[in-house]
Amino acid sequence: VKRCFGKIALTKRNISELFSSHEHIRRFISENTEICGEQSLTPEVKLRLFTPNCRFWTERPELWPFEDPYWAIYWPGGQALSRYLLDNPAVCRGKAVLDLGSGCGASAIAAQLCGAAHVVANDIDTVAAVATCMNCELNAVEPPVCVTDNMIGSQIEGFDLILLGDMFYDEVLATSLHNWLDLCIQTHGTKVLIGDPGRAQFEEHNIRLLLHRLAQFELPQCVREENYGLTRSSVWSYHPNTLFLQT
Fold first, then answer.
1. CA nearest 228: which of 208, 200, 202?
2. What's the pTM?
């Protein structure tokens, strides 16, 4: 497992430094998010998220001091992926897991709760890494290794499982993911699970023909309202050498 991290690996000391050097980010997150999760697909997982009770739900966007806060929303693909892991803990148990585009860290937390041997949460936003560590505290799990370099296209090895929730929202990104995931699977035999609620960029991409649906979940009403009426979210396994009929 150690080989897969190389120079970008963070030790427990690095995680401690992340906490101390970004204490202002921790305070900001604490003051501008609300602990919730009960109305998601994974009510057993607590997360710090934006809600209508939070200042920046209605505040002018230009006053936001960081990058766009994708980490502050529990996206429906990530919800389905986390629910699937919690319902099927053997998928992660004893495995080295990479949560790519980890956001709030829910899937990384689910993998930890399922007994994964090692978990890496990768998000290019440093604030997301801090939020992930804070969410781990809420759920009494060890913080994962947090990597803020862009790992898409990089040479990685040692991961048994790669998780992607809500990553196929852009055609260019979807294509780069397609090519990179092919390489990871063919070179290292990595298993890939994808969570997506059926966005057009996902359904219309060629990668869709290489996916087998493992599970489908009805989204809670509040999640539907926050996601333009999307009603379901699915988990897919990726098989680059097999074509599946559209379902």
1. 200
2. 0.88
